[in-house]
Automatic annotation (TrEMBL):
InterPro entries named among the record's database cross-references: CUB_dom, FA58C, Galactose-bd-like_sf, Neuropilin_MCO_CoagFactor, Sperma_CUB_dom_sf
Domain annotation F5/8 type C: ranges: 219-356
Gene giving rise to this polypeptide: Dcbld1_0
Domain of life: Eukaryota
Entries under PANTHER family matching the protein: DISCOIDIN, CUB AND LCCL DOMAIN CONTAINING 1, F5/8 TYPE C DOMAIN-CONTAINING PROTEIN
Protein name: DCBD1 protein
Species assigned in the record: Aramus guarauna (Limpkin)
Lineage: Eukaryota, Metazoa, Chordata, Craniata, Vertebrata
Subcellular location: Membrane
Pfam families xref list: CUB, F5_F8_type_C
Topology versus the membrane: Single-pass type I membrane protein
Length: 356
C-alpha cells in the first residue's frame, strides 16, 4: 500500500513507476525514492508518463522532485500541471522523488527514468550483451483487432527507421512498458522493406540498415506469448448481416467471423444499422498495445474506413480511448481497400478485458 511500483535504481541510471502502472494507481498511497549520482555528476530525469488525477494545486495526486541539499524543488505535477518538458536537467547529484495520492477516480500514474551527466546514454560495443538493463521507459509499438489484438511485444528491431533518441544517444525500441533484463544481439538486417499503412501514415518502399539489433526478453507468466495476437474468447456485435444468396440460402456474417485471418467472409453489421460495434472478450484483463484491421474481399469489397475504440474491465462500464492527453475520443484511420492490413498503436496501451 505504499504506492511504489516497478523500481530499478543503479548509480548511473534507473526507472521507477507508481504501483499498477499503466493501470490506475491506488488511493491513499505515498512513495519516496532517493536518487543518487556519483559525486561531481548531475542527474537527468525523463518523464515517460505523468498521468495523475487533475486537481487544484495537484491536491488529489502529485509528483514532487526535491534536492534536499540545495533546497530546490520541481513540481508539484499532475495532469493539469504537467512538466514543461519531457527532460529535466538538474544541477544536483541527489534528488528525492515524492509521489502521493488521495481519493481519485482515474489516472495511469507515474513512469520516470533517470541517467547521469557522466553516462547520458547507453552504448554497446559487444556483439552480445546478456544480461543488461534498459533503463529508459520506451513504449512498445508492435500491436494487433481481431481483427487482431496484441498484448506484449518484447523483441525490438533497430534500423534507420526504428531508433529512438534519449539522453543524447540512440537506442533501439524496446517494447516492454517496464524494462528489465534483456539479451541484445546483432544480426544481419533486411535491406529493403515494402510499403505499409500504420498509425495514419503510409510508408514508401525503402532501404534499411544492413545491421539489426534485436532485444530478447522472456515473458512473465501468465502474460500471453509476446508478439502473438491475443486470444479472443467471445465475439459479440450490435448486429450481423444475414445474406440470402442467389440460391436462397442464408449466410450469416456473424461476429465470430471477425478474427483476423478467417477464411471467407468476415463480420458485417446489419445493412443500414447505425452506431454498429464489434466487441471482443479477452477472457481476462490484458495489456493491449494496438490493433490491426482488414476488410473482406470475399465475395465483396467491404472495409471500414474509420472507427473509435472503447474498453471495459467488467463489460458494463465503458471508457472511450482518447490517447495520451486527448480530450476527445480518438478516431482511428482504418482501411482504404479490402485486402491490405492497417495497424494502429495504442499509446498509452489499453488495460482491459473487453474491447469495442
Amino acid at each position: 500500500g505504499d504506492g511504489c511500483g516497478h523500481t530499478l535504481l543503479t548509480p548511473h541510471s534507473g526507472t521507477l513507476s507508481s504501483k499498477n502502472y499503466p493501470g490506475t494507481y491506488p488511493n491513499h498511497t505515498a512513495c519516496r525514492w532517493r536518487l543518487h549520482a556519483p559525486p561531481g555528476t548531475s542527474l537527468l530525469l525523463a518523464f515517460g508518463d505523468v498521468d495523475l488525477e487533475p486537481s487544484e494545486r495537484c491536491a488529489h495526486s502529485s509528483l514532487l522532485l526535491a534536492d534536499p541539499h540545495a533546497g530546490t524543488a520541481y513540481g508539484p505535477y499532475c495532469r493539469n500541471a504537467a512538466p514543461a518538458t519531457p527532460l529535466l536537467v538538474t544541477n544536483s547529484s541527489a534528488v528525492t522523488v515524492l509521489f502521493n495520492s488521495t481519493s481519485h477516480r482515474s489516472g495511469r500514474g507515474l513512469l520516470l527514468s533517470y541517467a547521469t551527466s557522466q553516462h547520458p546514454g547507453t552504448h554497446y560495443a559487444q556483439e552480445h550483451v546478456s544480461p543488461d538493463f534498459i533503463p529508459i521507459p520506451l513504449l512498445g509499438v508492435r500491436a494487433a483487432l481481431a481483427p487482431g489484438l496484441l498484448g506484449c511485444s518484447l523483441s525490438g528491431m533497430g534500423s534507420k527507421a526504428g531508433m529512438q533518441r534519449g539522453f543524447g544517444g540512440e537506442r533501439a525500441l524496446t517494447p516492454d512498458e517496464l524494462g528489465g533484463q534483456v539479451t541484445l544481439s546483432r544480426e544481419k538486417g533486411i535491406t529493403l522493406y515494402e510499403s505499409a499503412f500504420a498509425n495514419g501514415l503510409h510508408s514508401k518502399r525503402g532501404s534499411l540498415s544492413e545491421k539489426r539489433l534485436i532485444f530478447h526478453k522472456a515473458c512473465r507468466l501468465p502474460r500471453p506469448a509476446c508478439g502473438d495476437v491475443l486470444e479472443v474468447t467471445v465475439f459479440n456485435a450490435s448486429s450481423c448481416w444475414h445474406e440470402v444468396d442467389a440460391l436462397g440460402q442464408d449466410r450469416a456474417w456473424a461476429a465470430e467471423r471477425a478474427a483476423l485471418g478467417t477464411a471467407g467472409h468476415s463480420w458485417a453489421a446489419e445493412p443500414g444499422s447505425k452506431d454498429a460495434w464489434l466487441e471482443l472478450d479477452l477472457g481476462t484483463r490484458r495489456n493491449v498495445t494496438g490493433i490491426i484491421t482488414k476488410g473482406s474481399s470475399e465475395p465483396y469489397d467491404y472495409y471500414v474506413t474509420s472507427y473509435r475504440v472503447s474498453s471495459s474491465r467488467d463489460g458494463k462500464n465503458w471508457r472511450p480511448y482518447r490517447g495520451s492527453g486527448g480530450q476527445e475520443d480518438k478516431v482511428f484511420e482504418g482501411n482504404a481497400d479490402s485486402h491490405r492490413e492497417v495497424s494502429n498503436a495504442f499509446i498509452p496501451p489499453i488495460v482491459a478485458r473487453y474491447v469495442r
